[in-house]
Amino acid sequence: MRCAISWLPRTWLPLTTAGPLLVAAQLMNITTLSADDWPQFRGPGGSGVAAGPETPVRWSVEPRQGIAWKTEIPGLGHASPVVSAGRVFVVTAVSGLADPGLRVGLYGDIASVPDDTKHVWKLYCLCRDTGQVLWSRTVHRGVPQIKRHTKATHANATPATDGTHLVVSLGAEGLFCYDLCGNLLWRRALGRLDSGYYEVPSAQWGFGSSPIIHQGMVFVQCDVQQDSYLAAFDVCDGRELWRTVRTDVPSWSTPTMVVGRERTQLVVNGYRHSGGYDPLTGQELWRLGGGGDIPVPTPVVARDLIILSSAHGGRAPLRAVRSGARGDVAQDRSTGDTDSLAWSRRRDGIYMQTPLVYGDYLYACKNNGVLSCYQAETGGLMYRERLDGGVGFTASPVACRGKLYFTSEDGNVYVVAAGGEYKLLAKNAMNEICMATPAISAGLLIIRAKSHVYGIGQPWTACPQVAVDGRRVAVERRGLRGRLLTPLRGLLRGLLWR
Question: What is the pTM for the complete model shown?
Answer without folding.
Answer: 0.88
